[in-house]
Design a protein that fits this description.
Distance between the termini: 37 Å
Number of helices: 2
Number of domains: 1
Largest sheet: none
Helix content: over 70%
Strand content: under 5%
Length: 58
């Protein structure tokens, strides 16, 4: 049980560190780049859902 709590504490600390560093050093997203990513992301998420559904039933 102690190992689990230590692991969760380390994961929480790592995520908190990533959030703080991301807020401090990240550049604001470029609207054109966000449009390109969104154009690919939505069909890929849909494909992932369909494949997950097929995997569940087959």
């Amino acid at each position: 049980m102690d190992n689990l709590l230590l692991l969760l504490l380390l994961i929480f600390g790592g995520v908190a560190l990533m959030v703080v560093l991301g807020e401090r050093f990240a550049k604001p997203p470029d609207p054109e780049r966000m449009h390109q990513l969104r154009r690919w992301l939505i069909p890929l998420v849909g494909l992932m859902l369909v494949l997950s559904l097929l995997n569940h039933y087959l």
